[in-house]
Amino acid sequence: MGTYLNPGAEQFEEIVRSEIYVDKTGLLRYTNSVVNTMQKYICVSRPRRFGKSVTAAMLVAYYSRECDSRKLFSSFAIAEANDFEKYLNRYDTIFLNMQEFLSRSKDIHGLIKRVRNIVIRDLKNHYPDVDYYDDTDMSGCMQDVYVSTRCPFVVIIDEWDCIFREYKWDREAQEMYLDFLRDLLKDKSYIHLVYMTGILPIKKYGTHSALNMFDEFSMIDPGPLAEYVGFTEKEVEDLCERYSMDPEEVKEWYDGYSFENVPSVYSPRSVVNCMRFRKIGNYWNQTETFEALQMYIDMNYEGLKDDVLSMMAGERVPVNTGSFTNDMVTFRTEDDVLTLLIHLGYLGYDPGERCVFIPNSEVRAEYINAVSVSDWGEVSRALKDSADTLNAVWQKKEAQVAEGIREAHFETSHIQYNDENALSYTISLWN
Description:
The chain is an alpha/beta fold. The protein has 20 helices and ten strands. It has three domains: 10-217, Rossmann fold (3-Layer(aba) Sandwich); 227-277, no CATH class; 288-430, no CATH class. It is 48% helix and 9% strand.
């Protein structure tokens, strides 16, 4: 086994050995159904902490030659499929974590060079007797191996979109990267399946559609892969029973993502940590996405500030997701910002009503954190006053409670504190 060619099942074995593993091998039914068809190009975008790398490791373990994963998968759902063994460990599988390559490269030229050199090295080590026409051409070497062995390739790419997150403003680098992937993958007989995963959907540049052969499954439309976005309600209920946790409280904190055929989807890493530590809490880390949340709401596109406050109060806001260009810097309207926040996991999306909302208490806490360190001074003060008033309620300090409510009534805000909507906003902040 190589490092990048047929890396084997070790990573997935480690995942399965963990205290909590929820069986998502049913996704392999879909990937098997599109092998060597026009639908063999799959791009799956998910927020951080939603199991993207776990899925990639599962695919690598299942498809990689030079290992026997039959026993590893035998107790999981995919083992019941009629075509389970037909595709098991039958492909030369190339696994690329683009974030790893980017972190070791000075620029996009270095990343592409490193990917090419490393994959070619693995190919030549595995197949030294192949007659390579040009041993500096990655695509050509893969074709030469395929012609010689008749064994097709499966390509799995994790963090595919890291270029668009770290080279946000460098259009030339982004286009060079897209062209590299197109030349490697598109219309190649040696490719029988490509699975790419990241946070963002595929970048669109008008007529420059380098990767237009991909079917995309995102937080806006996950299609047949909806039940594999996160944990389903049944999966979480089983975990709650196992770990003696309150399913209603877990639901309030980590549920809220919903799709047409899967109405209840939970944030998987948060649920796992909640079970492991037997404690309800905020398990979102302050990563670049948190910083992005603060930055984007501070921009206040077209009244974004007011809509964020409404959503913090539990309301839903209409959104048009169609104009988003799938990057982190091109914002022409408030809708573009809201759409990005859907992909980052900071908003849920209702495709029927075409509106967005804050999905759960955990994510709402992130908005409160972001607002508290933002330029929204009056909102930060309102949050503090709400917390002080709530503490006064708990301590039965009647005069302080009355004064807090009186001040709230006279406070100028996008919501006038004289109706039920305003009251719900204050209560939601307290909670």
